[in-house]
Amino acid sequence: MKQITFNDIKLMAARFHAINRRELRYYSHRPLFLFTMLIAPLLCVVFFTTLMFKGLPTKIPAAIVDEDCTHISRLFCRILDSWEGTDVKYVFHTFREARKAVQEGKIYAFYYLPEGLTTDAESNKQPTISFYTNDTYYVPGNLMMRDMKTAGALAGLGLTRAVLRGHGTSDHDYWGYIQPIAIETHPLGNSYLNYSVYLSNTLVPGIFILLIMITTSYVIGIEWKYKRQKELYQMSGNSPALALAAKLLPQTVIYTLMFFFMDVWFYCYLDYPCKCGLPAMMLISVLTVLAAQGFSVFFFGLMAGEMRLAMCICCLWGIFSFSICGFTYPVPAMDMPLKLLSVWFPLRHYYLIYVNMALNGYSPSYVWWSIGALICFCFLPLLTMPRYRKAFLKFQYLK
Q1: Which residues contact 343 (CB under 8 A, 6 or more apart)?
Q2: In the chain, at which end, N or C, are there fewer CB atoms within 10 A of the end residue's CB?
């Protein structure tokens, strides 16, 4: 085994620096890199956080179909309009008018109060009320469903209270009939039920990972496209590992800074919950950037010379990660093949680390598997180094 001397280390550092300068000079002549690595990530952070700045959509337009026109029906209207997320903009007198308003997009839901509601309620005939939500729009539809169910329950309790008072029940006693068991709700991790905390902390890192994977494949592939791969290989001293590491270092630094900006923006400026502390999330961000780059380098190594195919696979892999990482549909509820496939997505492991450490405040020992997986992604390119050596010398760009 050849012993590495100080002069060898000095020569490797000089080669590393030369490739870095070559790469930065190339970046300065290509505005595309400026947009992909700086402008696009910043726009993503600002766009998603300002889009959901209030946490949840408020004052969603709704309506009431009031065929009863009594004090009870007006009570329903007041209760529903009192919720922060609901704005009763219309009061219709026929079901047809309300359905037309939903189809035209003027409202997202409406209550239907049939004729004779008050009479049936006063005679203990258990009247029926209905509400309709437009679940074509998932978020407002679900929010309106929640508010309307609550409004219906409160209105029913109000009627019960009025009946009990009419029978002479005291204010102290009727609560035992209306609500025998008091329910307390304590949302953990996201106590303000801020929708942006739920979405932005996964969507924005997912977009960053997607950009990193695509950019990494493109940056490596242009060497073959412009037939400069042998020049890079000679500059590195015939070391594919040194060539790739030096070539990708500027990109690593830029994307790491973008992740740091995201962390500071989320956890310092917007005050999102982060129980593990900002330095811990920054370390996870560095590991995520390296894991995404390592995964992309591994993919490109398998398809050296076919830059467009490698970029397409990285793009599809990054987009598919939003569905399989588990923040929209739980991974334990997926079929076994999808469960096994989910471990191959860096976003899945970032999401688990974020939920357990930042939201729940657990120690890293609870997510050691995800941390180990990201570290393994960083070293995946080592498996393709022999193929890269062959690619630098023999493979040509495939149009």
Answers
A1: 349, 373
A2: N
Separation between Cα atoms, residue 103 and residue 137, nearest integer Å: 12
Cβ count within 10 A of residue 265: 17
Q: Is the pLDDT of residue 2 over 70?
A: no
Q: In this predicted model, what pLDDT tens digit does every residue of 145-163 receive, in sequence order?
A: 877 787 777 666 666 666 6
For 111, 145, 155, the CA distances from 152, given in Å and listed in that order, are: 9, 11, 5
* Contact of 299 with 218, CB cutoff 8 Å: no
Angle between helices 346-353 and 307-324 (to 10 degrees): 30
From CA 23, how far away is CA 192, in angstroms rounded? Answer: 46
Whole-number average pLDDT of the chain: 84
Q: Do the Cβ atoms of 26 and 19 come closer than 8 Å?
A: no
- What is the DSSP secondary-structure string of 162-173? HHHHHTT--HHH
Which two structure tokens, joined as six digits, stand for 20? Answer: 């870095």
Instruction: Check residues 21 and 70 and name the one with the higher pLDDT.
Output: 21
Please state, in angstroms and rounded to a whole number, the distance separating the CA atoms of residues 196 and 186. Answer: 19
Query: How many angstroms separate the Cα of 364 from the Cα of each of 268, 330, 332, 368, 371?
Result: 22, 21, 21, 6, 8
Q: Pick from 101, 123, 380: which is nearest to 241 by CA?
A: 380
- Three-state DSSP string of 15-82: HHHHHHHHHHHHHHCCHHHHHHHHHHHHHHHHHHHHHCCCCCCCCEEEEEEECCCCHHHHHHHHHHHC
At 375, list the tokens. 């570290």
Rounded to an integer, what distance in angstroms lies between the CA atom of residue 389 and that of residue 165?
87
HEC readout, 206-235? HHHHHHHHHHHHHHHHHHHHCCCHHHHHHH
**Cross-strand bridge partners of residue 66:** 113
pLDDT band per the 50, 70, 90 thresholds, residue 326: confident
Rounded to whole angstroms, how far apart are CA atoms 335 and 134?
Answer: 29
Helices (H) and strands (E) in the chain, counts: 17, 4
10 Å Cβ neighbour count for 8? 12
